[in-house]
């Protein structure tokens, strides 16, 4: 049986959120330098957001909100993904396969946003 879109997004976000705390340097390095403050702060805040949204997607009562927040998060982190791709393309020390991966990752945001919005639509009205 195939996992539901909500379960898939939940697992993806909880896994990624966990990595923000287990291996933060990788995420620190893709925070755009133009942002004020420390990169680690953005890494920790985005990791906590991913964990919270992943949990919201896992619970039917909060799934609609989770879908909305997941779509917003995927849009919000897109600049960091672009920054990473541009940075890696400029570095001679980054291998060609990693450069290709960084570029291929960019259009993947579209189906992630679409799936999050699908989860939102399929979750019906919020419980009041």
Q: What helical percentage do the residues reach?
A: over 70%
Spans where pLDDT lies below 50 across 5 or more residues:
none
Count of the domains: 1
Distance between the termini: 32 Å
Q: Give the DSSP E fraction (strand runs of 2 or more residues).
A: under 5%
Structure write-up:
The protein has one domain. It has helices spanning 5-22, 24-28, 39-58, 63-76, 78-90, 96-105, 109-122. It is mainly alpha-helical and 128 residues long.
Q: In a few lines, what is going on in this structure?
A:
The protein is mainly alpha-helical and 128 residues long. It contains 7 helices and no strands.
Summarize this structure as a short list of keywords or feature phrases.
mainly alpha, 7 helices, single chain
Secondary structure elements and pairings:
Elements: H1 5-22, H2 24-28, H3 39-58, H4 63-76, H5 78-90, H6 96-105, H7 109-122
